[in-house]
Design brief:
alpha/beta, two-stranded antiparallel ribbon, 27% strand, Rossmann fold, 27% helix
Length: 249
Amino acid sequence: MKVLVAVKRVVDYNVKVRVKSDQTGVDIANVKMSMNPFDEIAIEEAVRLKEAGIATEVVVVSAGPAQCQETLRTALAIGADRAILIESGAELQPLAIAKLLQAVCAKESPQIIILGKQAIDDDSNQTGQMLAALLDIPQATFASKLTVENGKAVVKREVDGGLETISVSLPALITSDLRLNEPRYVTLPNIMKAKKKPLEIFTPEGLGVDIAPRLTTLKVEDPPQRKAGVMVADVAALVDKLKNEAKVI
Ligand code: AMP
């Protein structure tokens, strides 16, 4: 069984991003970039399926500039078998990514496709859902546990206020939530091995996919500055402030 995982190169989660002065976006020049944390979880899950003898091959795909090769090499070091880069310097919105991944799925015919539940840069939470719809296959989003049995995937999903367990027939698309697993550390020998693993490069044009943006960003702003706190003398003063100033009780 082949498992395909999509990984995005994003600004590292430790970086404090700065909004550009013209408010068109955030400044990503010279900032540290890493694999989207939810995608690391997605890769880890795919590699565990292979180690459990359920998956036979793990293919990892990324769309974006040539530097995404670094992200793909990290995925190969975690344990993916081969990588595909869809190289493009253009802005790629979730629908365009979903169409690009659809084209790769048409070539690869994976039985399980795992994406992160969301990319931490655009917070869209759309690509997986759109890809499942384009492929016309079942989807199990926000997975916190995955088991594969009798040609079906059983997925525990994180839903508001609890967990829901569903079973979907394969092929299926799954999106990873935070509690699905704890990704392993990448070891130096595995980084060295990853350098020798195959990495194929396609372009959106070569795949025949229209990546024209459908959304226009009007403005990006910093969140409002937090006001400094005040020390109150006692509980009575706190209750008074909550009642008469904040008006929350
Ligand atoms: P989003 O819908 O943008 O929040 O992204 C959800 C998931 O889609 C990510 O966690 C990735 O698994 C996948 N994805 C988004 N953008 C890309 C990309 N440029 N290349 C590969 N996978 C992507």
